[in-house]
Write a structure and sequence with these properties.
2 copies of one chain form a homodimer.
Chain A: E1 8-14, E2 18-19, E3 25-26, H1 32-45, E4 49-53, H2 57-71, H3 74-78, H4 80-86, E5 89-92, H5 95-106, E6 111-114, H6 120-124, E7 127-128, H7 130-136, E8 142-148, H8 155-160, E9 163-165, H9 179-191
Parallel strand pairs in A: 1-4, 1-8, 4-5, 6-8, 6-9, 7-9
Antiparallel strand pairs in A: 2-3
Helix pairs in contact in A: 1-4, 1-9, 7-9
Chain lengths: ~200, ~200
């Protein structure tokens, strides 16, 4: 089943509000390879846009410089595939701005799905499985997947999201993937795989 | 089906021989986040070790410094989960050294599986599908997955490998994932998913 052509799936990488190791709410710095890896995965698996959310103007400037290099600058000629990926990035001040923009584009507010290695007490009641979300993506409805940087999304984000996706796990108890790896695996589970594969 | 506990799967990230944009054989530089992301995915999905292959001594030194920081240094106390992942890395001069070491450890030479976005003419005849490889991993046999840096594995590596894994694709023609993202998706397809999920 290949459902990506019928879905309106957006991604947002949140740099504020997220938590640090002590569970304090912080604004994290932007990581260059987050932009590259997640935009390439977004493009590969058919997401509609990749929002980078930070209220810090210097961090927004860093993002713009990176994107400019690959979309308009020398990098665009050197590697047109990379241009195609990074052109999917939109920098926004807040998650609310992202939701408003998608609602405007799609004519309907997006359903938000928080991701993370730990679902936590706030998320437990609205945890959703990959198989179920994959089916739900077929509905005529925009979806917004939320990824946290640093030690993960602040509980305020998880608390306000419509659903919380089950964590990506392997066979054991260790599930400390980078946000880049987690985003790729999640997109593959939701939108990927050859059309003749079973899910 | 959860087959990871019965498998002996090893990973190797090849920095030589790989190709550049012009398909010339080169030795690539090590990327810090390759070490972090792929070791974390290897640990999450239950691979037995993660070999970083480069003949360049200065690149080996860079690797050792990174690993030392996270396994023995300040990083080990700050983030014990990261220590557990990076402790899986073994730096070796060549793919032949890796194969010999695994044969010594396992009492049997590993079957090698080349990965890449383009299977190429050399690989077409021995292309293997995810579903088939997932089943084959159950056999009492060590396996070695080969990942290329830069523009991918040199044709000599693909030519000598036992199998070539089908590329990771999304719904469209674009499949330019980073090696970090591709490794995570491939490990998930081969070893991941909750035990009650269909594959």
């Amino acid at each position: 089943m290949n459902n990506s052509l019928k879905t309106s799936l957006y991604l947002a990488l949140i740099h504020y509000p997220v938590v640090n190791k002590k569970s304090e709410v912080i604004a994290s710095a932007v990581t260059n390879l987050d932009l590259h890896d997640i935009s390439r995965a977004a493009r590969t698996f058919g997401a509609k846009a990749f929002y980078v959310v930070t209220p810090l103007m210097d961090q927004q400037d860093i993002c713009r410089n990176i994107i400019r290099h690959w979309v308009d600058g020398w990098g665009a000629k050197f590697n047109p595939d990379r241009k195609e990926a990074l052109a999917m990035i939109r920098i926004r001040d807040s998650l609310d701005d992202v939701k408003r923009e998608i609602a405007h584009l799609e004519g309907k507010a997006p359903k938000t799905v928080a991701t993370g290695a730990r679902v936590g007490s706030l998320g437990k009641s609205k945890e959703i499985r990959f198989d179920d979300l994959r089916r739900m993506l077929m509905a005529h409805q925009p979806w917004l997947l939320l990824f946290g940087t640093a030690w993960g999304l602040a509980s305020s984000v998880t608390g306000e999201s419509d659903h919380v996706l089950e964590p990506v796990t392997g066979p054991g108890n260790y599930n400390h993937l980078s946000v880049r790896s987690a985003a790729a695996v999640i997109l593959d589970r939701l939108l990927g795989r050859p059309s003749d594969s079973k899910v």
